[in-house]
Structures are given as C-alpha cells and as structure tokens.
Fold:
Amino acid sequence: MYTAQIIVVVILFVIALLWLLRKYIGQSKDSNNCGNGDCGCK
Amino acid sequence: MARSIKVSLIGNPNTGKTSLFNRLTGLNQKVGNYPGITVEKKEGICKLDRGIKAHILDLPGTYSLNTTSLDESVVIETLLDRTSKDFPDVAVVVSDVENLKRNLLLFTQIKDLEIPTILVINMADRMKRKAISLDIKQLEEDLKTKVVLVSSRKNMGVEELKKAITDFKSLDIEPCVNASVIDPVYFERLRKAYPNQLLYKLWLVITQDVNFGKIDRNRDLTDLKTTSFEIKSEADLKRLQHKETVVRYQFINGLLKKALSIDTATAKDLRSRLDRILLHKIWGYLIFFTVLLVIFQAIYDWSGYPMDFIDESFASLSSWLSNKLPAGPIADLLSEGIIPGLGGIVIFIPQIAFLFLFISILEESGYMSRVVFLMDHLMKKFGLSGKSVVPLVSGTACAIPAVMATRNIEDWKERLITILVVPFTTCSARLPVYLIIVGLVIPEGSILGGLLSYQALTLMLLYLLGFATAILGAWVLNKILPINRKSFFVMEMPAYKLPILKNVLYTVLEKTKSFVFGAGKIIMAISVILWVLASYGLGEQYTNAEQIVTEKYESENLSEKDLNQKIASHKLEYSFIGYIGKGIEPVVAPLGYDWKIGIAIVSSFAAREVFVGTLATIYSVESDGEDELTIKNRMKEEVNPILGGPLFNFASGISLLLFYAFAMQCMSTLAIVKRETNSWKWPAIQFVAMTVIAYASALAAFQILK
Structure:
C-alpha cells in the first residue's frame, strides 16, 4: 500500500514538473502578434 | 425549424456596446481569442422570436474602418471576408446619443459595404435630461436603414432591436455615401479592373494594412500591375482617405441638421460641472488620492473577516484530513502540500474581489477615463505618450493584458518604453504578498482619528511607488532611447453613469475567477513539487534524523511535541529543498531572509502570488502535523536563524515589500514581452534591470532598518 502511494506521488510530481516546464519553457513561437506592420518589432 | 442569424455588434469605444451585448446575451457568453492573435473575442447567443437565435459577436471598439491598431483591424477583417464564419448577416452599429456625429462616421462606412446594418442609438434615456430630440424617421430615410433608440442601462428598446434583427432581410443595403466622389477617375479605373468586386471594399483593401485571407491583397496588387491601372503612393492614399472622411462628415452634418436638435438652455449639464472639479489641476489629484485611500482602507476593513474565516477553514481542513485519512504519503501530500498551498491563494479572494469591485465601479461610472485624462498631463512631463496611461492603469490588474494594450501606441519607441515600464505598476499578483507582509510587520494603529489605518496607507504607498517607478523608468528610458515622433492622445470622455450592478458583478466574477484558476493551477503543481522536495532527502542527516535529534536533545528533556518539531525541522533542513534553499541563502541572507523565503522567492518566479502558498507548504511540512495554525500565525512564529527574533520583522518586511515592488517575478510577463517585441533582448534587459533594482533597494532597506 505504502509503495503504491509512493508511486502515485512520484507520478504526480512528474506530471506537475512537466506541466510547469511546458507552460513556461515550451512557449509557442507565434510571431504574428506584433502591432501594426511598422511597429518596429519585426 | 430553428434558424440562426449572425450578428456583429460594432461601435466606437464607450458607446455602451458591451452593456448592450450583456443585455442581449445575458449569461450565454463565451470569451476567447481571435485565431493567431491575442485580441479578445466575445460571443453570445440571443433568443429571438419564432425560435430564431442570434449568434452575436461583440467586435472590438473602433472609431472608423481606417484602422491603426491590431484589435481595430479585427473589425475590418470580419467585415471584408465574406467567406469567414464570423461574417455577419446583419451588422448592429451602436452609437451614443451624445456623440452621434462622430459615431455615424463608422456607420456610414459599414453601410457602404452593402451589409444589412441597423443603427442603434444608445443611452436614449438621457435624451430628455440633455434636451436632445431626434427625428428618427428622417434618420431612417437618409441613412436608408432601421434606427432603434435603446437604453441598455434601462433595458429600453432592446425588444425592438431584437425584432429588427429578426427582420434583417427587409433592410436596404444601398450605400448612403458615394465614396468614389473623392477621386472619380481613380474609382472608375478601379471598377473596370475589378468589375465583380464591391468598389468600397476594394478601396478599403487597398488602403488598409490588413492581412486578408480570401481577399488577397498581394493578388490584387499583382493584377493591378498587369493592367494600365495607376498605383497610388501611400501619401496619395492617405490624402484620399482624409478626403473621404471630409465627404462623410459633410453628409453627416447635413443629416443631423435636419434630424437632431439640442436645446442647451434647458439641458441640466451636470457633466460639465463635475468635470470642472474632477479634472482640476489641484482638486482633481486630491480627489483621486482620496478615492485611492478610501479603496485601500475598505479593502482592509471589509475583507478581514472573510479572510480569517478562509484561513482558519483551510487550517482545519488540513488538520482534519491529516487525522481522517490513512497515514501515508498521499495523506501528507494533501494535508501538508496541496491544501495549505491552495489556502495561500483562496485566502485572497475577498481582497481581490473588493479591489476589482472598486475598479469596476470607477470604470463604469466614467470616472476612470477622467483619471486617465488627469494622468496624461503628468505623463507628458516624463516623456510618455498619453496612450501609455491605459496600459499603466490596466497594469494594476495584470501586466500581461497591459503589455498587450500597448498595441494601440503607433510609435514603436513609445510602445517599447511602455512595455518595459508596465511591470512596475502594482498588479493583483503582488497584492497577496503585500497584504500578508503588511499585516505582519506594519502596526495596527491608525491616523486621522481612526479613519485611515497604517496598513491601508502602506498599501496605497506601495501602489503609488509602483506607478512612480514606472514613470521615472520611462523618463530614464526616454533619455537613453530618444523618441523621434510623438503620437497624439485622443480619448473620448464618456458621460457619467450610475454603474450597472450586473456589469460590475460580471467584472468582479471574471477577474476573481481568472485570479483563482490562473494561479490555482500553478500553485497546485508547485505545491506537489515543493512537498516532494521538502518531504524526501538523501544522506545520513535525513535518513537518521530521528536518532540524531533525539541524541542531540537527550539532556534537555523536551516534550514529545517539541522533540517531533525539532525532528521535522531537521528533516526539512536536510531534504532536497533544504539543500537548494541553503544554496540560495547566501544570496538572500543580506536582505534579511532565511533559506525558506529564498525558496518562496524562487518559486514565485512562476507567479508572484505563489510566494505565500510556498511558505504555507514549507511551514506545513516543517510542523509536526498536529498544529492547526493559520498561514499568518506560522509566519509570525518564524525565527531569524542568524539574528534571532522574529524573521518577519519591520526591516525584513520592508525589504521584502520593496523586493516584490521592483522585481520582475513573473515568467508569463516575460514571455508576453518576448512575443510583443519579437526578441529575447528586451525581456532579458527588463529582467536584469528590475532584479538589480529590487535587490539593491531590498538590501539597502534591510541594512538601514535592521
């Protein structure tokens, strides 16, 4: 029972870690969000 | 069989378009983004007669179809692409009875696109008081459409509007202005080159810098090259656009001369009298600061009881779970990790809700626009654009939409400076950190005969500090990056209105929901990670903690409870997180923080509000599991390991407040800045500069005050 709980905790830990990494590191590379064509950010 | 009508709600800003949208759709709304861009898309369903449903799209506010910003361009894209799923069967142009002349410019442009168009004249309830009379029949005749008088505030005329939408097929689609008179030769050539296209649509395609899906601008230009058609220069096109505007206003002036009359002698114009006071160069600022003081005082006074209730409830829930669930890692994760972590977010709901309640009332009443106007005078002295005021004010909610709101600043350098300084304004994510620290280190006394508490005053000063730093930062950046061009700030001053309770509650609900659910998911993930890192470790000191601590305190005859507390502290110190924290400690110790605060600062880089939740999780793991202590009490009991005495004292508290006031503790904002500037250079500069300012000011504060 204790081992099963440890496994669940480890799985939750990995999911949480991956979710955070995906949220903050894996940002989309969409560059279509500048303002006007001459906004200077392109 | 049920039928569906696609309706686009279009209008100038501040015409009550969103209020009408709310009135038509009620709770049947959904908010999303337009594909590929982050402009908000609001849609809703309205039930009409005969089982017909109207699918209503609330398009961003725009003054004309000669758009200059990304959100405005959404309007023209929707209206020009007949193959788009959002292309309307009928357009409803919402205008304001007090600004009909300006509002009709947009109406005439849309009407010329030969889309069935209804003109809604909103705020009709004010006509009597303002002594305005309208000849609706004349308006309908000249505008060749249905005109409906509406008051979205008083639910007047809404049924008539629904009927007009149902009968949209009977509307005349004939244009009311002939735009080709501005250059008949040019338009005739254009018509010959594209005999199957609508002339005014072609003109808009040529003059707008918009990426059309189906009406491919490049293809049009390629075709133009193959004909004998003369391509006009940008300057010529702009000249013609101005000419078009003049022609339209000539038409509108002639129409309003016949259909509109205002008897100024009988008008009871409270607005002008109020504006004279609220926009006064001395009284205006004094009133604004008084309003701020009242807001912050109310935030503290009113939210105390629900906050204490939430805090105690979460502490009891943790304790209850710990006792009821079978012992094991999952029960510990829940009672020591997730529940205290979530409690660190939920506790701030009352204060966040009160803050947005006041902001929403100020916006709805029309006072916020006066504040923006008032601040514009101040801004100009520091080299900021008047248009920067809106992002800076909206930054008090969240820096992310505020950074995106800079899109309506045409000049790139002004826009860049605004993007770089916006994160200094106090966003709602800083509020939880401020509230808990202010509550711990600022005394409970008051001034002005008990009217204003020290804590509320400190909170207001922190807001002013953020705003002042943003302006000062802009001034410095203005010197480093000289601005070549100045953009003009044109804003419409909306009329004063009694806030509509429904709209205020929608805003409060929406903002609170996004705060809880946005931060809640991050808190949940971080709580799991922190709990695992704090509950497990390697090495002899961790695995033999019980034996080591028992031997160490053998001679002191500690009670079982105290001994368990010592063992838990020892284990935490040698857990994974303990090692990480000890690595950070040399960096944060000069600021008056211990390694646990160091961990909270690092984890709150994901989102500032995570700070409190992180400390709650760490202190929960450290406790022996029997205490039913609230987050605030746990923080109060912490002792500075180096200097002794309370860890959260005046010096370390002020140091923490200053650190959070200046530090760029928000990955999402950095990601948005990267996206808006299309480079990592600016977010990197922003991060380094803000962190250096935060560290230096926190260090100075602690070293002076300790």
Chain B has a mean pLDDT of 81. Chain B has three domains: 1-268, 283-480, 521-705. Chain B has 30 helices and eleven strands.
